[in-house]
Amino acid sequence: MKKALVSIAFGLTASLLATGASAQATLNSVKQKGFLTCGSNTGLAGFGVPDAQGNWTGLDVEFCRAMAAAIFDDPTKVRFIPLAAKDRFTALQSGEVDVLARNSTATMSRETQLGLDFPAINYYDGQGFMVRKKLGVSSAKELNGASICTQQGTTTELNLADYFRANNMKYEVVAFATSDETFKAYDSGRCDAFTTDASGLYAERLRASAPDDHIVLPEIISKEPLGPAVRHGDNQWGDIVKFTHMAMLNAEELGVTKANVEQMKTSDNPEIKRLLGTEGKFGEAVGLTNDWAVRIIKHIGNYGESFERNVGEGSRLKIKRGQNALWTKGGLQYGIPIR
Amino acid sequence: MSTVVDTFRFVRNQQVEALPPPNLARGPIAWIRENLFSGPFNTILTLVVLYLLYVIIPPIVDFVFVNAVWTGTDRDACRAETAGHPVGACWAFVIDKINYFVYGSYPVTERWRVNIFFALLALGVVWLLWLRAPRRDLGAIYFFWLFPILSYILLTGGDADFSNGFWLGFIVLSALIVAGFGAAARFLNAPVKPAVLIGAGIVAVIGITLALLEADWGLQPVPTALWGGILVTLLVATVGIVFSLPFGILLALGRRSKLPIVRMASVIFIEFVRGVPLITVLIMANTMLPLFLPGDMTVDRLARPLIGVAFFASAYMAEVVRGGLQAMPKGQYEGAMSLGLNYPQMMILIILPQALRIVIPGIVNTFIGLFKDTSLVAIVGIFDLIKTIEASRIDPNWAAPTISYTGYAFAALFYFVFCWGMSRYSLGVERRLATGHKH
After folding, report:
1. Complex ipTM value
2. Domain B91-158+224-437 classified CATH 3.30.565.10?
């Protein structure tokens, strides 16, 4: 009765009830609902941005679409719930979203205290510097005595202090309350260098009054491993998230692309056969179908394709692969074998 | 001949044409002398203001019109080096994104439903606000009952899918309400039959509402996570306004009631809600509420701030209305009672019409404040107009130095048009209704 009263109360006031997922067997509840709910960014260039029709695009967005493709063979069966930084983790904990792909940094306390898992890292970010070309600087080590624009009260400010102290260099910090103000100040010549996460540097550079006058220095002074997060306690679901990313990495390594995935099915390479499910039953073992990886690659493509399309050369951001290159090319993205 | 003498007498039988006042006492020059340069202090003030206008106005005009870019498909149109001239507002960006600003991520093929919602909203607003509109009593029923139901069905697709337990609970509650009305009437020595009929009427209205919400209208369901832009801004403001006026009046009456429990409940509600900032209510609703509710139940993300805003506005509205009630002379109450009117008749026929008229500026002021406060929902990740602009301005396809300013200028224009409209309307109503007070 109490429950009925409560539900009547909500029915009368809001009339908008939805059911959340329980902590266990997320895959079943997702299949039952018929769509995946994905906690997404409220707007970050290259990772989650609405286009003119309101469709979300970006690297994190495509990750969720890849999961929907693996589960339903339909990348549109995903609902994006844009989450502010404050309520992103509670939304995941309370079951409001099934997976959080929202450029969240994996840290120990988030795994242990918040009860989250970061099964995969789909973007290795880190704090970097941008300077004017005419400054003639090619490394952050040459920034001794520079004035640096940064945002107040963020970890960027602390990382900056650590880096300059460790390298025994002097600097002058010019801090602002918002990232907008900070970049505006740098753009108008208020300081020599601008620092924030490297992916952000590329996005900000586009907005500069003369983007070609600025370069991003190669040094990365902090570790920001960004990846999708899930709740503790549902290992099968965590595996699906993990191997969605691994399948995209392996596909890139093996040369399987959106365009050639159908021909690759006939390949004799045992690794490709296992990836595409023509050999073994790896998909079924995780609760999906054996052609799960084919579905991902068919609809989204491999990791490299997704990267280039959203943040790399195919996009306006033109971020270099850097740490996000495959391990075979000197990066950190290492797809663990499917066997 | 005396007539000869008469010929020298001159009587003007026509009014002489009045001479115009001297040039220095009329026309624009005199007006300027009198109003702008009437003394050394005013002269200095005038010069300072003129200088400030000179500093401020030309750059704004340059930005908004002269250097503005009206056409283009991406950032190249709005960058000085590719456009070949200094670029002010990039209206091409707003034009490109306008559908997103209006509808958010609402599915393209279903946007006609949002358009109908806008039309229904306009109909309701005009019906209620145009003082000479026909059958404004029907208009009130439309705006406060039919319109919310239609909007809900249109925007979400209806088919609310209540569980059987919900309907069972509803039937039990209905029986309790009807029985409660009957019991109360017997207790108060009033005739039982009309009381039971009133109770049954309330139950029937709620039942019909729920049945309409549950009926399957064949519309594709659209989850609220996809709603956005002006749709959400108007929705939050409308829910706040529709809810806050009746609820605020009830709270104000409750606060002045002689029944201690009703009074205490009203006072606690008003003081509690007014005692916390709206932003706290929103963050509480969006971040904490999901943790308090049992695992299988969540309240829709958009409904949470809607409820928060509605409660918040009600508390403020209650205090505004209470101001009007306080201002009523005691004689009005006594006069009404001496005519033998009971409490509802006294309030509806005598007190409230006068009290509400007094506080029209206060009510409109609250509405304007509420309308602008709706932008706070952006903080909890609801895509209202401001949030859609914020999300669009970082789009790399439109990355240019003036994109952010253009987006905010558009938002400012939107809010200004609505708030200014409300304020002008309230002035007009005051002028019409104030006729009785002019002695």
Report:
1. 0.80
2. no
